[in-house]
Design a protein that fits this description.
mainly alpha; 256 residues
Amino acid sequence: MSRCASEASEPCGKREYASNILINIHTLFHSIILARSLAARRSAQLTPLLNEIEGFAPFMLVLFNNLLRDSKYGMVFRVAVGALLSTIDATTDIYTLYTYWTAGLKGQAMVLLAMILANLCFQILVILAQYKSKSWKRKLWEIVITLTFLRPAVDAYRVSTNHEDDEVKVDQLTELCLNKGTEMGTESIPGCVLQCYVYLISTSDQVGSFALLSIAASCLTTGFASAMISFDMDVDVTRRKTQPRFYGYIPGESKI
């Protein structure tokens, strides 16, 4: 007589049911990009477990969010989008600066240049503090990454691959948030405001239609950076444990 026949059919069925779902999680996960799609596809099958097993819903939420963050799909998404937006924003800002200067808007050009330099300087200060115990060769390498506007892509890659270094001051996620916060506060947001102001008060011959692309790039960079900071901080397991009243606003229900 089988084990299922010797025991109550309902508990045995639940164990087999749960086992089959967990076995297929890995295959299923690689067929989607977002955890929301995963929850929507399996909501009907997971409903009995979510309702009857205490703590199962939070467990699955943490599991799927960390799989998304650590998988190759999450890594490719972060690195590609971060590098693309960073490159576009930097390129459009530099070209806009050149446009302002050649159009006679030298004061506006100098202000925009000051914003770009302020962003780079603050990020270099973060590097010097973060890698204080490292060699100057490593510090110069990190500075080169910043000066070539590849910092967002490198930070996203390190967070996605769970890069760890015991010699640095803070973890990679905190460093990413610091750099993105610096970029938003010193360049993306004030630069967007400045370019909008110049576009409104100047003629089309002075700023050109390219100014709209630069404004859009700054808006997209700000939106992406703030969204990724919010997501990374909220789904981080350690932060959810230490500050449960603040983190956890990304729900796990399929209705989202």
